[in-house]
Amino acid sequence: MAHRNWLTAGALCAAIVLAATFSALRPGSADGQAMMLPVDPTPLVAVTGSGKHSFSIEIADTSEEREAGLMFRKDMADDHGMLFVFERPGEVNFWMKNTPMPLDLVFVGQDGRIKAIKRGEPESEAIISPGQPVSFVLELKAGTAAKDGLADGDVLRHPAIDKAAGAGSN
Fold first, then answer.
1. Which range is the signal sequence, renumbered to this chain (predicted)?
2. Which residues make Cβ contacts (< 8 Å) with residue 79, sequence separation at least 6?
3. Would the pTM count as exceeding 0.85?
4. pLDDT digits over 4-63, tens only?
5. Distance CA 45, CA 8 (A)
6. What are phi and psi of 28, to 5 degrees?
7. Which residues, listed in sequence order, are joined to residue 114 by a DSSP beta bridge?
8. pLDDT tens-digit map of 114-165
9. Cβ atoms of 33 and 27 closer than 8 Å
């Protein structure tokens, strides 16, 4: 009986060591390194009064990815962003702790329409919220939203957004 208990304890210890090892292999916010997600093959398109603007995006659609976001990133291309996808529309709160670059936060409803655009200041712990339920948040390099003419009511098109918009119309 004692032998079986030692085997069980040994297997449990091995599982814990393996889990710790594999979690340490993926850089992320816990270790002070920027999380890099794959760039989605389909660009996000913003349809604005000044025309269409395309962005290459990373998609953060798990709670771990949304928590890490663009923390620790020092730079990003003007035509690049991160799309945060939430399971259901709701109030969201962001902050810029551990984020050294200023950002535009574009809050988007389930229908793909921009609800609000807010500025995120580097390293700030101030809460950034649109004050209404949203399904998505697009983070861009600060100034990009104004430069490309993004405004409340404009539409963002991407398969992840279109999927949610279709689900909302059923």
1. 1-19
2. 54, 55, 56
3. no
4. 454 444 444 444 433 333 333 344 455 689 999 999 999 999 999 999 999 999 999 999
5. 54
6. -165, -170
7. 108
8. 999 999 999 999 999 999 999 999 999 999 999 999 999 999 999 999 988 7
9. yes
